[in-house]
Write a structure and sequence with these properties.
Length: 168
């Protein structure tokens, strides 16, 4: 699977989640999000538009916000980890030209003191036509997503996307 992985505001490029995805055979593009200059939404959108087909966009925190907007722009499924769909500490420039309804998978931490997961659920219930509570997982962690929880959520996402492809 070709995956675009977008890290969060206080995270850096790569890391254990990207290494895990690559170790199980996925092709991962994980750009530096350049949050110090407000993010690089346009260049990442260009990557989605002009590079080989992206099968899944994964985003954590602020990267989850970008992932969701890119998913809407290009109708690509998204896996959002404690996404900053609300309560952002910065407002990066996001240019959205399309409003598709991408399939949304979600992993949140019940003890997240940065992004309230209940507000995230309400937001997705109201704004995302292809968000289903069966595609939502809640762990007992805070804002940082532990690798074992990520592996569980990603594994479920991969199984469901494969079933959709088989039935298409």
């Amino acid at each position: 699977m070709k995956i675009l992985y977008l890290h969060g505001l206080e995270s850096s490029v790569g890391g254990p989640k990207v290494e895990y995805l690559e170790s199980i055979g996925h092709e991962v593009h994980a750009p530096d999000m350049c949050w110090d200059v407000g993010g690089n939404f346009v260049s990442i959108a260009d990557h989605c538009a002009y590079e080989d087909d992206v099968d899944l966009i994964i985003g954590s925190s602020m990267g989850g916000y970008f992932a969701y907007e890119l998913g809407k722009m290009f109708d690509i499924p998204v896996l959002l980890l404690n996404p900053a769909l609300h309560s952002r500490s910065i407002e990066p420039e996001v240019i959205s030209t399309q409003n598709a309804d991408p399939l949304v998978f979600l992993g949140v931490g019940a003890n997240d003191d940065v992004i309230n997961y209940e507000t995230t659920l309400d937001y997705l219930d109201e704004h995302a036509n292809c968000f289903f509570r069966g595609n939502y997982f809640k762990g007992n962690h805070g804002h940082q997503t532990p690798l074992d929880f990520f592996q569980k959520v990603f594994g479920n996402t991969e199984i469901r996307l494969n079933k959709i492809k088989q039935n298409a």
